[in-house]
Structure formats: structure tokens, C-alpha cells
């Protein structure tokens, strides 16, 4: 997601459109980007660390974006060991690529 202190013209446009279409309860929108990575094999702590590092240092521009969350789905993969406890949650460096 764009950092909170930066203007988000896309978010502003979406918020305006929502307001014009009767969705007055929505007071703000931030527009970001999302990556979907497919991992071969089980998701263990090493894979989780690699994905977190990729999100923070390769897939996002830390000057203008924050990594908000990393979500693991168990569709075609098996989660391994301790990592299985966190598969439905939020595991990211502070700050969103979701």
C-alpha cells in the first residue's frame, strides 16, 4: 500500500465513485498492489522468511510503500511444522503488499 503520508489519487477517485453511488459510509480508500506467489513443496519457516524478504526488498518500493501482510493459503500446498499455525494470518515486516 502507499505510505499513509503520501497522496493516493487512485484511492481518492475510488472513494469519490463510492460516495457518488450511495456508499456514504466509506470515508476513505487506499489502492495498493498484490502479488500471488506459488511455492513448490511445503511452506516451512525458511520459505516464510524468504517470502517476507522478497516482499520487503524486491516486490515493494520501501520509499513509497509498506508491506501490510503476507497471507498463506492451503489450496495446493501443505504447510509444514510451526508455519501451519500462522497460515491464515498476517506475517510481514511492519508496515502492505497483500
Automatic annotation (TrEMBL):
Keywords: ATP-binding, Cytoplasm, Ligase, Nucleotide-binding, Purine biosynthesis. The keyword Methyltransferase does not apply. One of its GO terms (molecular function) is ATP binding. One of its GO terms (biological process) is purine ribonucleotide biosynthetic process. The keyword Repeat does not apply. It holds the Pfam family PurS. NCBIfam families: phosphoribosylformylglycinamidine synthase subunit PurS. This is Phosphoribosylformylglycinamidine synthase subunit PurS. It comes from Agromyces bracchium. The gene is purS.
